[in-house]
Amino acid sequence: MKKTVEEHAARFSEMADEYDDSKSDEYHASASLVIKHAEPSPGDVVLDLGAGTGAIALAVAPDADRVLARDISEGMMDEGRRKATEAGLSNVEFAYGEFRAPDIDPDQRVDVVTSNFALHHLADDEKREAIRVMADTGARRIVLGDVAFFEEPDPEAPFYGPEVDDPATVGTLVEAFASEGFAVTTVERVHDQVAVIVAERGDALAARGGSTDDSE
What we know:
By secondary structure, the chain is α/β, with parallel strands linked by helices. It has one domain (5-208): Vaccinia Virus protein VP39 (Rossmann fold, 3-Layer(aba) Sandwich), CATH 3.40.50.150. Helices cover 35% and strands 23% of the residues. It has eight helices and eight strands, in the order H-H-H-E-H-E-H-E-E-H-E-E-H-E-E-H. Strands 1, 2, 3, 4, 5, 6, 7 and 8 form an eight-stranded mixed sheet that branches. The chain starts with a helix and ends in an 8-residue tail after the last helix.
């Protein structure tokens, strides 16, 4: 991680009011795909990591039983809470949580984990640890949208901020999911440097008679 958790939290709190209006088309396309692939059932609990102002959490809440939205920035979460109240959503809980320590009750059931444009702040070894924590929730499906490289990024036109971001290759993320017993069923190429990855627990996929369908 190129900045501390506290530095990232302060930076995002400062931009919370303008955050939603500052995002790129690729961000919004990625978020839409994460929402599409999350597919929570009415009784499901969704854990949304790096929830920010609630782009994913608020969108999936009508289809889920409960959404646990976790972020490190109080300013971003305050904005998310405001939006949830305006939308009349009472099943979304915004609370402090990090990727490697999401602060959920050990007995809390989690069915689906989502995240969009947040994991890339971690170094690759930290991303692997974060994916291990996601897997340890017992979720059957993890949907990750993030800055990630399909090939070498153009150094003259980086999609990310090298001073604060540390994206992985898509292959690194796929391998991390596989090491935790997940099958990557979908890889959506939003941009040369933006991917949406859908990973499903092997036993859950087998029970559905599913198969992988990787695509770029």
